[in-house]
């Protein structure tokens, strides 16, 4: 007759936990070969000299302006405002807010707005900061149909912006012609 040996509860727990830890360690060792490089984690404190750049271009009834807060040469927040009398447009984005995702690569920062509302590409150079607007939802921020696309450049020491396309008027695309029968 065969004698059965029983394992204690403590031994069973030890075996289960050991197997779990071994599997976890193996997964962590395998991850670096396939994992994407981590960008700067959200909520990281920015270090460096604070700087504010502002500029405006246009007339009282039709103009664009921007205020940019930089920390250590990197954009911390953007406040863009334009006026097309009687309409106004206001976009305010802050790093690590709930409405945008920021990714720094070299001297370029990509800001992707949540809910597919567009993105900014920010080029940080020594003398200027250039914002490239990529299909920013004009309805969301301005109450007008269309997208904001183009660039706005803020140059250190200048109070006038350089604009390309950002203030262009929206012209709706003609509806497709109905197929003749």
Q: Which ranges are low-confidence, i.e. pLDDT below 50, for 5 or more consecutive residues?
A: 9-14, 16-40
Assign an overall shape. Answer: globular
In whole angstroms, how far apart are the ends? 92 Å
Give a count of the beta strands, DSSP E runs of length 2 or more: 10
Number of helices: 2
State the share of residues found in helices, binned by percent. 10-25%
- String of helices and strands: HEEEEEEEEHEE
Strand order in space, largest sheet:
5-6-7-8-9-10
Largest sheet: 6 strands, antiparallel
Radius of gyration: 27 Å
State the secondary-structure class: alpha+beta
Mean pLDDT: 78
Strand portion, in percent?
35-45%
Describe this structure in words.
This protein is of the alpha+beta class and 181 residues long. It has helices at residues 9-34, 138-142, and strands at 50-58, 62-71, 74-84, 87-94, 100-105, 108-113, 119-124, 128-137, 147-155, 162-164. A six-stranded antiparallel β-sheet has the order 5-6-7-8-9-10. The N and C termini lie far apart (92 Å). 17% of the residues are buried.
Quickly describe the structure.
It contains 2 helices and 10 strands; from the N terminus they run H-E-E-E-E-E-E-E-E-H-E-E. With 181 residues, it is of the alpha+beta class.
Give the tags.
single chain, 181 residues, alpha+beta, 6-stranded antiparallel beta sheet, 4-stranded antiparallel beta sheet, 2 helices
